Automatic annotation (TrEMBL):
The lineage of its organism: Bacteria, Pseudomonadati, Pseudomonadota, Gammaproteobacteria, Pseudomonadales. One of its GO terms (biological process) is tricarboxylic acid cycle. It holds the Pfam family Sdh_cyt. GO terms for molecular function: electron transfer activity; metal ion binding. The heme is bound between the two transmembrane subunits. This is Succinate dehydrogenase cytochrome b556 subunit. It comes from the Bacteria. Membrane-anchoring subunit of succinate dehydrogenase (SDH).
Length: 124
């Protein structure tokens, strides 16, 4: 097929719409949650194995790195939750237009940003 259309494969110059960015971030947050569950399950297993394991896990969770990891996981959860609620609302037929999709994506960013900041305050 000989197409005369220009092809732009430079990812640095492609301008994605806000709805596409929201969708991509929803998928990325799902991947973060998938791998984060493994980390949290390891900590749960270690804490339930013995009193010494619980003490070690409790001491580990006081470090800034562990708090950051938990904050990243909670941030992924908050974004994934708000974007998922947006998808459920769109399944009901609300916000399916182009303007509604853009508004929904903006609301997801705003609400999740507020929740992420609140999670950071709660952790630290």
């Amino acid at each position: 097929m000989n197409s005369q259309r220009p092809v732009n494969l430079d990812l640095r110059t492609i301008k994605l719409p806000i709805t596409a960015i929201s969708s991509i971030l929803h998928r990325i947050s799902g991947v973060i949650l998938f791998f984060g569950i493994a980390v949290l399950l390891y900590g749960l297993d270690k804490s339930l194995a013995s009193e010494q394991g619980f003490a070690e896990f409790k001491e580990c969770m006081t470090s800034p790195l562990a708090k950051f990891v938990v904050w990243v996981l909670l941030s992924g959860l908050m974004y994934h939750l708000t974007a998922g609620i947006r998808h459920l609302i769109m399944d009901l037929g609300i916000g399916e237009t182009l303007e509604g999709g853009k508004l929904g994506a903006k609301l997801v960013f705003i609400i999740s940003a507020v929740l992420i900041v609140l999670m950071g305050v709660w952790i630290w």
